[in-house]
Each structure stands twice: as C-alpha cells, then as structure tokens.
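Need Transcriptional regulator, MarR family's 3D structure for a figure. Predict it.
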Amino acid sequence: MLSYMQQYQQDRRKAPAIDEVADQTEAYFESLQLLERMHRLMLDLVKDEFERLGRHDLTPVQALIIYNLGEAEVTAGELRSRGMYQGSNVSYNLKKLVSMGYIHHERCDLDRRSVRVRLTESGQDVRRTVHDLFQRHAEGLAVSGILDDPPLDQVNMQSRRIERFWTEQIRYIY
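Structure prediction for Transcriptional regulator, MarR family:
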C-alpha cells in the first residue's frame, strides 16, 4: 500500500502540468470563439446564397429551420431542441413560415395543445437549396484536403463530447 506522500507524488506525475492546463484553457477559449464565428458565417453563407438566387423572403434562420425540419413531422418543441437558431424565436419563425406557405401545421390528434409541423412542397424546395449549398461546400473542402487533417469525423466526435459535457452542466444547474 502506498503512503499518502507516495500517492500524492504519483498523482502529480499523472496530472497535466500547470502550463499544459493553461494552454488547453486558451485553446478551449479559442474554440468557443471559432464556433460562434463559424455559426455567424454559416448564416451569412445561407443569406448570400438566397440573395444570389433573388430570394429575399426568408431569413437565414428560417432557411435553417426548414433545412433541419427535413422530411420529418415534429412538434415545435422537438424542432427547437434539434436546431441552433441563435437567439431567434422559433415560434415566431414557424408562424411566419406557415403564413408564407413553407410549412404545414396541424394540431396533434392525441394532444390538442401540441402542433405538428412538416414542410410543404415550397419548403422542400428551400431545403434542397440549402442542402445543395452545403453539398457544394463539402465537396470543395474535401477536394482541398481541409477535411483530412485532422479527420472531420474525429473533430465531430470531440464536438459531440463537448456538447454532451455542456448539456450535463446545464442539467446539473437545475
């Protein structure tokens, strides 16, 4: 059995050095800033694509709501929990999308308080536009080799781990 001092020294050897922790902290802060900027840039890319096509009726957030809805029929709450609509009011945007004819909504038979939504044919067209934009970007990035170092699937796995950590932190608060 190890003495307390031996255990302490062994634990210190395993623990990252203070400089290493500081470096990881700085890298984490930089990642947070990059994520925020990338999200804003993604919204700008969607906006520019629709402007290029002469479509000025949708905001980028509305286009992403349509894209994330996809082929599914879900409740507004499910849609909100799936997406990232940076400070937007999902209920307001859904009402606008229904009034513009991009989304069909109806009350759920089992729970009349719940509203189920799905894309109309016009909504499917918008979804294809966003999908084609993302597809072109993915192909360009693949050809350039940007997605290979590190492999994007590893980056995604790390992002999912951070997402899970954040989710647990939020749940822990309540």
